[in-house]
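#lab-general

N.A. 3:47 PM
ok so I finally got the sequence cleaned up, no stray characters, all 382 residues accounted for. can someone with queue access submit it? mine expired

B.Y. 3:52 PM
send it over

N.A. 3:53 PM
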Amino acid sequence: MTEIYIDITQYITNRLNTGIQRVVKEYLIREVKQNKNLYVLFYDLKNKNFSQIQNDEVLCFLENVAKYEFKNISKIDIFKENKNKKIFFDIDSVWNSPLKRDGFYKELKEGNFLIYNFIYDLIPILFPHFMYEQTINNFKPYIDSIFKYSDFVFFDSNSAMQDFSKIQEKSNFPRKINKKVIYLGSDFNTSKNVEESRSSKYEKLLSKKYILFVGTLEPRKNQELILDAFDELYKNNPDLNLIFIGKIGWNVENLVYKINNHKLKDKNLFHLLDVEDSTLNKFYQNAYIVTYLSHYEGYGLPIIESLQYCNITLVSKNSSMPEVGGIYVEYIENNSKKSIISIINQYLKNQALYTSKKSKIKDGFKAKNWELFYFKISKYLT
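B.Y. 4:20 PM
back already:
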C-alpha cells in the first residue's frame, strides 16, 4: 500500500486558478476520487505542523478556489510510523512555502519517505531578471534540495528536463535522479454547476473578431509586442480587436498604463482579469487568432489550449514552445513585430488560406488531455 502526501499550502494561500495551480487542480480532482490513501496537507507556520484537509473538502475547494472556506482541517503527524510505502509529492509552487525544503526533505528521508517533484521550468535560475527577487532567493535552495534528496522528478517538457540536467551538472550534487517528461493536458474540467451567466456578460465581446493572448501580464510573457503590432494592424482593420486575459503580475506598470490609457480601451482593446474556466473556454473557441510570445516557457499551456480549438496560433520560437506547438503553430523569431504583422495580415487578406490552416490543425493536431496526464503520473506513484 502506498500513501501519497501533497502539500497545497501555496495553492490555498494564493487562490489562483492558472498555470501551476491548474496542474495541481487537474491532478487532485482525479487523485482524490481514486486514492483513499491520499493526504492533502496545509502547513501551519505559526504552530509549525501540518494539517490534513479531508478529501471531500479538497473537491469543494477546487470547485471554488477563490472563496471556499475550510470547515474540517485536522492536525496530522506525517511521520507516524507504519509499514506503508510513503511518497511526498511536491507538485505545487512549494519553493515559496514557509516550510523550507532543504531541512524538511532531510526529515522526510530520515522518516523513510520517497520524495517526488514536478518541475515546470527553471526561469528563476536561467532568467532571474524576469522574476521577483523573493522567488529568485527561494528557488535556488529549493532546486538544490531536489538535487540532494529527490527520488523522482517529473517535467512538463524535454526542454525543462534538459535545463534541469545542465544546472545539476554544474551543481555540487551530481547524483543520479530518476526523471520523466509528462506533457500537460489542455482540456477544461469545468463544473456542471458553473452557470452560463458567467460568460453571458461577454456575449457581445465573444462575437467580435479578436486576437487573444492568455497569460499573466509580466515582462517574460511579452504582451507589449502584440499590443504594438495591433496598433499597426488596426489602421487597416478597424473591425479587429485584441483581448488580454490574465492577472496583473510583476514589473508591468508601463504596460498596464499603456493598456488602460489606450485610445481603443474597451472599444477594440480589452483586458479581462477574472475569467472562469467555462468562459475562458469560450474565448478560445471564438478567437480569430491566438498569440503567445513569451521569452521562455517550461511548457506553454496556452499554446496547447489554443490548438485544441484549431486556432491559428503565433508563438515565439524558443525553449519548449517548438516542442509543444510542433508544425501546427506559426513561429515568430527574434521578437519581430514586423513578422507578427506580416503573418496576421496574410490571414486577414486571404480567407481561403485562413480556412485551410485551421483545417490542417483540425485534421492533424491531437490534443493531450488531463486524464492521460493523471494516468501517466499515477503509474509512478505506486
